[in-house]
Give the backbone structure.
Amino acid sequence: MKIAVLGATGFIGSYILDSLIEKGFEPSVLVREGSEDKLSQSEKCRIVTGDIQDEQAINETINGTDCIIFNIGIIRQFPHQRITFDELHLQSAKRTIDIALQLNIKRFILMSANGVSPHGTEYQKTKYLAEKYLKKTDLDWTIFRPSLVFGPSRGKIEFCTQLRDDLIDLPLPAPLFYTGLSPLHAGQFKISPIHVKNVAEFFTRSISDSSTFGECYHLGGSEDFSWKELISIIAKASGKTKLKIPTPAFIIKTLASLLDDFSWFPITRDQLNMLLEGNTCDSKEAFKKFGIKPIPFIQSNLTYLKE
């Protein structure tokens, strides 16, 4: 069975690709020129060199395949470089969906995100609008909405590794963000971390399962953790202790409003807003339905942070 993968060179995409190959699928992947070396097991893939903005490249990648996995996404936009949530999350998804309809490729699996909303951040809105566009088609679609995804980064962007580099390793206390005037609940917003191998398994197991057609699944781990707990666990897994201090969110938002466009600044206003909202979900039924065992968010599964 031939599977088109758009977004195969990123963190989650590399694990989806490995899972597909392990299960005997034949991946067809779209890769930007010069990024071929970012592919895992490239020798087992049909590679199309091109850009997601190029309809001809998309057509060549998905033509003749049985299923499309759209996994393109960014966590931060840089409009001056024409890297935007609208272009990559929404317009590229619409472009791919339209071509799938033209080629009569019925199976379409979309990577979305937990917490998407028509009234949220630009990240959340563009993910939501891509879902809405897909749902209006007659494709056999499935949507997955993961919470925070963790696991060995393979040199790519991964939350725990970034937190280690941008926060834990700095000789400063870790911020426990809070809104309002009282710091009593600082750092208490919660997240449901899910292992990247679990996410990849959900994608590959859904491909031929018709019971998943027209369904949307929220994916989180087996336990919720507060921001304060996350910092402690990641610090310990990195072999360090970390002092933590309550920090008013408005201070960081003010700084971010000035420094959003600089990649060296560790967090944007939108990212902080989404953190403060929390990012939890109950995925027990999804794990049960797919027959997948959750990989827990514990120190023994975070040993890659010491590398």
Summary: The chain has two domains: 2-150+194-219, 159-191+223-281+295-306. The first strand starts at residue 2 and ends at 6. The mean pLDDT is 94.
